[in-house]
């Protein structure tokens, strides 16, 4: 299914981002200063692409149809699982940004600690989240959705991907900056 293949490809990019978040967090633990520019670019990438594009495609397209078509089990899986985790990720990013701002004002160990905490909380959440989506949610959708609904999802997904092409250059620039 095109939609799932596309979303899984985006997951690969997100996992690469989490690996670089971990590498940069370890540098801080090893005594280096916080690479504020790196973490600012992480936040931009997450907000515009990991959340702004990827999560929105899931929420607006795939998850919407799963809830509509697959009943209570899908509703619980999506609403109480995946959407809660999307919100948790947004919280971690807000807190990371807050402590980056604080660090720029005052380069304390406490601010470094919270930068590492929220950066790694995001990274670990997304690693587990991606695994659940790839191995449970997407598998369930692919198996349980009717061919007719899959065609509808595919059409909406292709339209959304086409709309996102306008931001492709910015996305590629961030990918290079973040080495993902």
Automatic annotation (TrEMBL):
Q: Is Lipid biosynthesis among this UniProt entry's keywords? A: no
Protein keywords: Coiled coil
Question: What sections of the sequence does the record tag as coiled-coil?
Answer: 150-177
> For this UniProt entry, which segments traverse the membrane?
none
The Hemerythrin-like domain extends over 4-140
Domain of life of the organism encoding this protein: Bacteria
Q: Please state what the protein is called.
A: Hemerythrin-like domain-containing protein
Please name the source species. Peptoniphilus stercorisuis
């Amino acid at each position: 299914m095109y939609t799932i293949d596309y979303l899984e490809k985006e997951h690969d990019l997100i996992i690469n981002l989490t690996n670089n978040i971990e590498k940069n967090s370890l540098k801080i633990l090893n005594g280096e200063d916080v690479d504020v520019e790196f973490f600012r670019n992480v936040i931009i990438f997450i907000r515009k692409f990991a959340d702004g594009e990827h999560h929105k495609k899931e929420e607006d397209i795939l998850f919407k149809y799963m809830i509509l078509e697959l009943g209570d089990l899908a509703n619980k899986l999506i609403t109480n699982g995946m959407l809660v985790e999307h919100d948790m990720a947004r919280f971690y990013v807000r807190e990371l940004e807050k402590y980056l701002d604080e660090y720029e004002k005052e380069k304390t160990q406490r601010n470094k600690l919270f930068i590492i905490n929220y950066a790694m909380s995001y990274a670990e959440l997304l690693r587990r989240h991606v695994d659940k989506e790839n191995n449970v949610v997407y598998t369930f959708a692919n198996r349980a959705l009717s061919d007719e609904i899959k065609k509808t999802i595919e059409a909406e997904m292709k339209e959304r991907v086409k709309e996102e092409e306008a931001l492709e250059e910015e996305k590629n620039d961030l990918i290079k900056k973040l080495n993902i």
